Amino acid sequence: MLQKNAASSSRGILQKSDIPYSLSSLFKNPPQRSGSNSKSEKIGTKASLSPFESLRAVGCGFGVFGGFLKRGFEPDAVTVTTLVKGVWMENGIPDAVQLFDEMTEKGLLGDAKTYGILINGLCKARKTGLAIKLHEKMKGNCKGDVFTYGMIIDSLCKDGMTTEALDMFSEMIGAGILPDVVVYSSLMDGLCRFGRLKEALEFFKEMEGRGISADVYTYNSLIHGLSRAGLWKEVTWFLNLMVDRGFSPDAFTFTILIDGLCKEGKVGEAQQILELMRHKGKEPDILTYNTLMNGLCLVGQLEDATKLFESLADRGIKLNVFSYNILINGYCKDQKIDEAFRFFEEMRPKGLKPSTVTYNTLIGALCQSGRVRTAQKLFVEMQTCGQFLKLSTYCVLLDGLCKNGHLEEAIDLFQSIKKTEHKPNIEVFSILLDGMCRAGKLEEAWKQFDEISKNGLEPDTIAYNILINGLCNKGMLSEAVKLLWQMEEKGCLPDSITFNKLLT
Fold this sequence. Notes:
The protein is an all-alpha fold and about 500 residues long. The protein contains 27 helices and 2 strands. Strands 1-2 form a two-stranded parallel sheet. The longest helix is centred in the first third of the chain and has 15 residues, at about 75-90. The protein is globular, with a radius of gyration of 29 Å.
């Protein structure tokens, strides 16, 4: 939910930090300008500070600013905005927000433009929570506008917080601020991403009713959502509407269509769309080609995917990490791991750094084929190459060790996770629990199950099913039934797998 508590004007958005733009020294007994009265004269210093902003010479800008303060001038909102923008350009958004907090504490208030700059920076840095706090503070000093509301709504949607975005939209309407096409498009895109197509289409109708015309981004968002849902009749309707209103489908529109068709296994039709795209003078980019390659891999046409991959390299189209990951994943799923490694070994000589996805795919495939030692070597290589080990990588190797009967090594790996910055989640506990049950170590499995709650987690349906399965395999049916009752008492709903195991 949105954070409703407005920050007071005396409390900063960020925690205090040591930054080179502290204003405290500038406000200590500033001398009066000779010939001035007791009140400070308000003056716009934008003209004096603009060159320093454009040159990003913020230190010089502060020297000029300090001179104005010591002569008794009071800077206006334009000056505050100029300084804040300059600090953002040179040192980044955290320092800019900190500076603004200090200025506000000293009574130097910005305007809607100042807040807009900071909110925009926070949203771009994916610090939506801080942007909302600043927006609350803004409402105590000046009126918000469609620009600031729109940025927060868009950021919330990108964070998957569509309900909160809808709340912010309602707040905006309640404040008498009318949405524009950008706000509506952000909401529709967010809703489509989570399959809330009916609501997205309702917003489209509402936007049209307000006399606001859709743009290419709006149409692409709706077409993407509808194609992912397989609603091709509706996709065609919106494509026709888009063209009728003078908008030509862009490269991303065609890529959306190719992606939707590929995910339905209609690779032939996807290739026809690619040809139509070229015919319309829209040059496919690497995203388009990656989408088609992935589609070919999904239907098992690895040879065609490889030919497309190689043709791109021959034509000078720069391949990226995603291109390699697609083929590596395709060959791993086809159990052609050595071929997958051929592409893996090409990456670094071509200046491409394998990603976590690359390593996870290969480690998982090696474990599935019983090549655990090679998987462990690859895991060590990740660390040697300076690759940050995400929890997902630990999970892949942990699962491989458990399923290949290397329980003691799995327990050692589990213990090593605790020594990292990662906190084992329910997935990690469940993987090890499954390994213990597979090895017939029910006593250890019970202890592992109890550890879940001790670590502030709640066992989920998967964890219960693993232990129930282990108990049933050992003929301990009464204990399994008791665990089922406990499961229901804890509010964890059993599924078909739970009952099937108890009944067989």
